[in-house]
Amino acid sequence: MLRQILALTIFAFLFFGCTQKQVVELKLPSKDKVEKKVVQDKKVEEDGVTIIEELVPIDIQESDNIIEENIPVSENELNQIDSSDLISQQESLQIDGTRAKMQVAFIYPSSLVSKYARNSLNTISGYLSYQKADYNLFVVDSENESEFNINDAFSKVKEKGITKVIALFTPNALNSINKVVTSDMKVYLPLIEKKDFLEDNDSLIFGSISYDEQLKKLSYYSIGNNAMFYQDSYLGSKLRRTYDSLIPDTSVRKEIKKNEKNFRSIVNDYRLRNASLYLNTDIVKTSLILSQLRAYDVFPKIIFSTQIAYDPMLMVLTQDKDRERLVIANSIDDVNSKLKDEITTLGGNITFEWVDYSTLVGINYLFYDNNSSLIPTQVVNNEVIYTPRLFKSTEIGFLEIK
């Protein structure tokens, strides 16, 4: 009996003593109270392999031919395929066209968006698997965004009689796409905003998130004395231009070079103390800046970042105290947990990768318009309407601020 009592005592100590606290106190300027919601309760190390892979350069495989792939239509056949190899397959897979209830094409330029394309395909497959749908997914690699290759890719889609397309192109391809898309088609563009297109074409649906709206949302919490760091990259320059249009009154503006390693001269600036600091930099540069600010005892009043920092890697690269003043904007909404699990199983990441989430919004819209409640984000006037939300980070994930 004494031995049993002793065993129960030890069990109770281990169970209750090891439970982690998952709620933190959140405070923001101009807000007396905030509501907290845990949106990510997985430990960071569970995603470690995937996150680290994001930092590795992508090897581009050049080819002289357009690649066509037909993905099997049945759920049983789908489960036998390693979805991460969908793009790398060179042979066409035979399908029974009479069984296909859904037909969709996926076009992408591999020299520009290879990694995004892989995840987007996984997301589409996960969504259709969740719907238990028989389908024909026709994949075409245009290699680049030349007018000839885009025309050739869409011609192959039209030959198959497919009118619903997800096209993973950049804004540079808009003119070529606009010329080739016919009125009977619906083409969803996950990487492009409607403001990038100056013409009218009801066949095009624009799915990119709006960094403008995120910066606008963050600016509501500025206490003045604004400062901004930006990176010499395409996205960094885009964020800088948006920032300048929204917040012209800036006391500190600094460019972070791509190969910047010494941040002392950048962060050791008395003007940053009690400032509203905007970090328009990638996840690695943002993490280094946050760490160096604390290392040199330079404490802005509040630090802002956009979707770029909404990444579990942030918790790996920084310490909790580095992020105490950080507020992050995120436009990815919550979806059905079973759907999320299905997509995650096949290699998509609709929790932290906004391109995957945009692709999910697109495939749902192509088949159900706005008549499905499965995805909260809606399409209005051929444009996806994202609602940016604000988050704080903890050692276990992100907490929403309301």
Offer a concise description of the structure.
It is built from 13 helices and 16 strands. By secondary structure, the protein is an alpha/beta fold.
Give an overview in words.
The protein is α/β, with parallel strands linked by helices and 402 residues long. It has two domains: 36-53 and 211-330 and 387-401, Rossmann fold; 67-209, Rossmann fold. The protein has 13 helices and 16 strands. The strands form three sheets. The protein has an eight-stranded mixed beta sheet. β3, α4 and β4 (135-141) form a beta-alpha-beta unit.
Strands, helices and their partners?
Layout: H1 2-17, E1 36-38, H2 48-54, E2 67-71, H3 75-79, E3 102-108, H4 110-130, E4 135-141, H5 147-159, E5 164-167, H6 174-180, E6 186-189, E7 204-206, H7 211-219, E8 226-231, H8 234-246, E9 252-256, H9 264-267, E10 276-280, H10 283-295, E11 302-305, H11 313-317, E12 326-330, H12 337-345, H13 354-368, E13 378-380, E14 383-385, E15 389-393, E16 398-401
